[in-house]
Design goal:
heterodimer, A: about 220 residues, alpha+beta, six-stranded antiparallel sheet, two-stranded antiparallel sheet, B: about 180 residues, mainly alpha
Chain lengths: ~220, ~180
């Protein structure tokens, strides 16, 4: 499979996996990044389509000029209000994007085979992170393109089922924040550099796992 | 009167099943037609057609996909019949839909508008895939296209939406858009 074929398949069906595609993205960073972006986009498309479009056919005659200005002004105000909410509550948006990212990689929850230390290191190294997990079993480790950076995306098997960990070096949060969305519970906690997101479908020891990560992560200089 | 007599009977299990799927059908029709009252007409007509042909539905588990294809065909019929009367998108987008305060995600809001603006040849396969859960091959059969043409349309639909979300558009892929 070449890059054109991989892009066509990923762009048409971002969650598609075939042996040929997997083999290609393993060796092609550009296509791997494209796939991660398309999966994030697809999760947003799904969210966008969840509700019918909020439009109604305009039966009324065209509004007078002053009405158009009033409409433009009210739309501007509404947009500013939305941006205000968005800017003032960045952790909400971050949490949603984390959930969307996890939803876009459903296979991550299914892995059961414990990864070797080398496999985990490969996912962490790209972000300049070392982790010495001593007690938990890591069954998924990828370096994912998220908000303009490669971030480690791990799945750790806990007593309450799998939990996802994303180490977000470039996303600062001021304080711990919990969230529930799309059947998942999660916490975002500050870290020495950036933040850590931990998500699970069964609840459980998310805070404990987040605390453990805070202690066990070693921040190295970021590779260029 | 005859229409009323042939309407789905919600006392029968199959009628209840059809009714339970009405919200899904309405959402699908609404995204296709971009107009709520048209979408309601399409769904009503589709449910009547489905009720009349209910013997053809062998497996109730396939009801959702079966009904969605009926809705799609009903929309296509209407689109052909009333081509010149269908909604002007400029008019639609001019109406004060406005961003929802409860939906503070700028990307999702922008995507909703962008999906509305997608030409029908891109919007239709995208809706069948994302809302309908149809495979590429099923979409190809439904739209009488080759699988490659469907893949190309889906790729181009998403590539247009990438730009809306601030991502660099991917280079276009060589591909056929032709019918089978």
């Amino acid at each position: 499979m070449n890059c054109d074929e991989a892009r066509l398949l990923v762009g048409a069906e971002p969650t598609a996996t075939t042996p040929a595609l997997e083999e290609h993205v393993q060796g092609c960073a550009a296509c791997a990044r494209f796939r991660a972006e398309m999966r994030t986009l697809d999760a947003n498309i799904l969210r966008a389509l969840q509700h019918p479009p909020d439009v109604a056919r305009a039966h009324a005659p065209r509004p007078a000029a002053w009405r158009q200005w009033a409409l433009a002004a009210s739309l501007l105000l509404a947009t500013l209000a939305v941006l205000g909410v968005w800017v003032l509550r960045p952790s909400d948006t971050l949490a949603r994007e984390v959930v969307a990212h996890v939803q876009a990689e459903p296979e991550s929850w299914l892995a059961t085979q414990e990864l070797s230390a080398g496999g985990i290191d490969a996912a962490l190294r790209r972000s300049g992170i070392e982790l010495s997990l001593t007690s938990d079993k890591v069954t998924y480790a990828q370096s994912c393109w998220f908000r303009g950076h490669y971030v480690p995306h791990l799945v750790v098997q806990t007593a309450r089922g799998p939990a996802t960990v994303m180490i977000l070096r470039h996303e600062k949060v001021r304080e711990r924040r919990s969230f529930h969305e799309a059947g998942m519970s999660g916490v975002l906690v500050p870290a020495d550099e950036g933040s850590i997101a931990v998500l699970g479908r069964e609840g459980g020891r998310l805070d404990a796992l987040a605390g453990q990560m805070q202690k066990e992560i070693r921040w190295l200089p970021e590779p260029h | 009167m005859s229409e009323r007599l042939s309407a789905p009977d919600s006392r029968e299990p199959i009628g209840r099943l059809f009714e339970s799927l009405r919200p899904d059908l309405l959402r699908f029709a609404h995204w296709l037609a971009r107009d709520r009252s048209l979408a309601e007409d399409i769904v009503q007509e589709s449910l009547l057609r489905a009720w009349r042909s209910r013997e053809a539905l062998q497996d109730p588990r396939a009801a959702r996909a079966w009904l969605l294809t009926i809705v799609r065909r009903e929309h296509a019929r209407l689109y052909e019949r009333k081509r010149l009367e269908l909604v002007s998108l400029d008019e639609v987008l001019e109406t004060p839909a406005g961003p929802r305060l409860a939906e503070p995600d700028a990307d999702v809001f922008a995507l909703r508008h962008a999906i509305m603006r997608l030409p029908i040849e891109y919007r239709e396969p995208l809706l069948l895939q994302v809302l309908g859960g149809f495979t590429t091959e099923e979409i190809a059969r439904e739209l009488s296209l080759s699988s490659t043409a469907v893949l190309t349309r889906l790729f181009r639909a998403r590539n247009k939406l990438r730009v809306i979300c601030g991502m660099t558009p991917a280079p276009d892929v060589p591909g056929s858009e032709g019918a089978r």
